Structure prediction request, 125 residues.
Amino acid sequence: MGRMVELGEDKAIVRLTGLTWFFAIKMKLEVPYETISQVYVDTFEAPRIMLRMPGTSVSFLNIYEGSFKYRDEWFFLSFSGNGPFLILELNGHPKYRFIVLQVVNPTGTAAEIRKQIRLNEEDDL
Prediction:
């Protein structure tokens, strides 16, 4: 599939492999847990007027890879097809507001990220 999420102590790392990273023009994206405000699994339809900056899109096939800007918010999209997708809503990330990923087990991955966020919050107490 070319996308995976590795969970560290204080951040999630999105790794792209194969042609996925080539078209996304990014191999790795680090997401500190403290910047993740919501994690959920859902479908996602990219607005038709998003600006690619940089990235690749084939909208009629619903393929999006890379960084996109829409209404002054940055999205990192890496998917092909209609979902369900792992969606991270961010608050305080240096660049992105949303990350939308197609992963093998989006529900399981979302649960693991939520668990790591809770553990990280407990360590801060």
Notes: The mean pLDDT is 89. The longest helix spans residues 106-124. The two ends are 38 Å apart (CA to CA). The longest strand covers residues 51-58.
